[in-house]
Amino acid sequence: MLARQLAFPITKLKGIGKVSAADFAALGVETGGDLITLYPRDYDDRTVMTSLADLPPEGGTINTIVSITDHGHYMAKGKRVLKIGAKDLRSGRTLYLHCFGRAFMENAYPVGTSWYINASVTRLGSAWSASAFTLGSSEEAVGIGRILPIYPLSGNLSQKTVRKAVEAILSNKYIHFDDEVPDDLVAKHGLMHTDEAIRQLHQPSDRASLDRARLTLAYTELLHLELRLERQREKRAKSTHPPKAGKLEQALQASLPFSLTEDQLRVLDEIREDLDAGSMDRLLQGDVGSGKTLVAWMAALHCIERGFQVAFMAPTELLARQHAEGAAALLEKLGVRVAFLTGDVKGKERGYLLDALHQGGIDLAIGTHALFSKDVAFKRLGLVIIDEQHRFGVEQREALRSKGKDVSLLMMSATPIPRTLAMTVFGSMDISTIYSKPMGRKSIITHIVDEKNRERMYASIGVEFSRGHQAYFVYPRIDDEGEGDLKDVTTMFSFLKEKYPGIPSALIHSRLPEDEKMRILDDFRDKKLMYLVSTSVVEVGIDIKDATCMVIEHAERFGLAALHQLRGRVGRSELQSWCFLVYYGTLTEEAKARLIVMRESNDGFRIAETDLRLRGPGDFIGNRQSGFLRLKVASLVDDVELMAQAKEDAEAIIQEDRGLLQSRHATLRRILSADGTQEPSD
Ligand code: ADP
Ligand code: MG
User: Fold this and answer.
1) Which ligand has the minimum distance to the alpha carbon of residue 291?
2) Helices marked H in 239-282 — which ranges?
3) Residue 438 CA, ligand 1 centroid: distance in Å
4) In angstroms, what is the span from residue 291 Cα to ligand 1's centroid?
5) Could you give the CA distance from residue 249 to residue 242 in angstroms, rounded to a whole number?
């Protein structure tokens, strides 16, 4: 059977009662299958004998033989603690074993006796000490000679409990795990059979076998992942010619001073095809400034032309309004009825709007999360578009979506996610990617500036002002919503006023009232203001073409994704733009690496990959979601080559046997159909 299909509850195993079952449940382990796929997070390698002489000055783990030399006692926190003196027979040095609450050890380990020991040792003053140790009469008893698995734990679970439970399954001679990789590929890559790999991963006989087991299971996961991807691609490739742009879409295109980029056209084909086929679930990712908004309007027109309503949701009032204004300018002349709905729209106006939405008198509603309030009802909602999707939770998306039947979803993300990661996180969603920006965009020139040497930066920005170009000066929100950061921007603001006398500017931060913020941005757009000093409120989406300078203070405190987003506020036209990353003090290695990536690259996808490497997936998708990553053994960061191999193999399999009907693919077919990606065609 497949490992994951061991369906008996773990309470059937000896030694697992209600209490530990609850702890296991917290780890997501309820069945034998869950337990056997709860893989060790690390190993305690006791295959090598190490004595005190082998340890570095700060200590470490030893596996050796000691002879007990004396028993002593001392008081700690009002309790008598036994301290056993033990001589390491292999180095001749002395080790002190502190037996907290374990007075019985005095009799169990008399002076003069010798024992095998595994201990994690630290230096206390000039003496070696250990309080976590195992003494035993044989190597076997203390695990010497073995590589012990270390499992993730929760509650009161101990390694011992988990190891025993796993052992109970593995020692059952009726249990055998089916191969999850076809034989020919096992042979080709020198893999283990699945049964052996699972056993070795839990109970490795030596390092080499452990490595091979890990490789086998990582490859297995990636092969399944790539097969799922391959089938999805297949599904798309099979369908008929993509529907053409309708009248409204053509009219919008004709009204633009530029033509759509090839990437925009391609993703629109993908989107239209989905929309016409029924319900769409699509993530549109593209770097900052790649023109996602226009794609969204085109998709909206496609639905509107078919008599549906469209809801467009943005994370902030500012951004929602920018979009509403953009939509009004572009779409109203085509006869599209656009409405703007946020929490600030109240009273009569709100009542009128809600009525119109309900009666079908509005085609496109643009707003914030106010769009999914209870009192908002649509006549015939067909498409929900979500800008800057990472700012919304799943529940919010679904709330909006549930306002209609078979509502399609288009989520837009300006934080590019490496493809592998996106696939795993967004599971069943289709992904459209805009790789290239509109023609004629210049790369943003990025400088890393020590805050002590900021004068040259101010000089070059001054030159930009004289050309009629604008700038942002951003201070991080250091202590979320605290007063400290406000003081920082305020100080910076008066400092800049002196630096650039007579140049109109404004201070904008998250605690200003919404309409005040909007007024400031309007003035900035109209060039009544030449620069803005802000906390990171300008982070998302704001699109102002003549802004060419971005100064980020305390750049060392921002993550790569945020830096890239902020920098994306400039470089939004054919003008040359600059970004200055101002840092304070000495940079840590990681911060330095981040700033250098920013300087070397303008490519959001490359930056995202580096971020993934530096900090893991949590920062992309929220730590909460990253827990659901389906990969248990393979690493999105370290197994890139293995992933490429798995992809190649998956392509070959699908090419040859797209229905996975051949007998050697029977297990693969079972695995893929179990998670619902199997097509019903066979
Ligand atoms: P983002 O993908 O970051 O949301 P936007 O949709 O705000 O980017 O687009 C950035 C700018 O590029 C906008 O001012 C938009 O009008 C412009 N733009 C979009 N598509 C094109 C195109 N095909 N050619 C030239 N400019 C374009
Ligand atoms: Mg945008």
Assistant:
1) 1
2) 247-255, 262-277
3) 7
4) 3
5) 15
| The two structure tokens encoding residue 7 | 């369906």
**Euclidean distance between CA atoms 521 and 547, whole angstroms:** 12
Which residues hold their Cβ within 5 A of ligand 2, which is an ion? 541
C-beta of residue 309 within 8 angstroms of C-beta of residue 378: yes
Q: What is the C-alpha separation between 489 and 552, in angstroms, rounded?
A: 12
**Contacts for 53 with CB less than 8 Å, ≥ 6 apart:** 88, 90, 91, 93
Pocket test for ligand 1, best of 322, 542, 543, 546 (most atoms within 8 A of CB): 543
CA of 630 to the centre of ligand 2 (A): 29
What residues does ligand 1 touch, defined as CB less than 6 Å away? 258, 260-261, 264, 286, 288-294, 414, 438, 543, 572
Angle between helices 514-525 and 317-331 (to 10 degrees): 50
Assign 421 a pLDDT band (cuts: 50, 70, 90). low
Cα dihedral 224, 229, 231, 233 in deg (nearest 10)? -170
Tell me the per-residue pLDDT of 158-185, one tens digit each, with 9 for 90 and over.
Answer: 999 999 999 999 999 889 999 999 999 9
Which amino acid is residue 553, in one-letter code?
Answer: E
- Helix (H), strand (E), coil (C) string for 555-609: HHHCCHHHHHHHHCCCCCCCCCCEEEEEECCCCCHHHHHHHHHHHHCCCHHHHHH
Mutate to test the pocket of ligand 1, among 572, 573, 577 (most ligand atoms within 8 A of CB): 572
Torsion angles phi and psi, residue 39, rounded to 5: -85, 150
Q: What is the pLDDT of residues 133-146, one digit of tens each?
A: 999 999 888 888 88
What percentage of the chain carries pLDDT values higher than 70?
A: 89
Least confident of 29-33, 107-111, 191-195, 415-419: 415-419
Q: Is the pTM of this model over 0.90?
A: no
Closest residue by CA, ligand 1 atom 23: 260
451: pLDDT strictly greater than 80: yes
Q: Which ligand ends up closest to the CA of 290?
A: 1
The set of long-range contacts for 646-650, using a CB threshold of 8 Å and a minimum separation of 24, is 646/219, 646/222, 646/223, 646/225, 646/226, 647/222, 647/226, 647/229, 647/230, 649/185, 649/223, 649/226, 650/223, 650/226, 650/227, 650/229, 650/230
Ligand at minimal distance from the CA of 569 is: 1
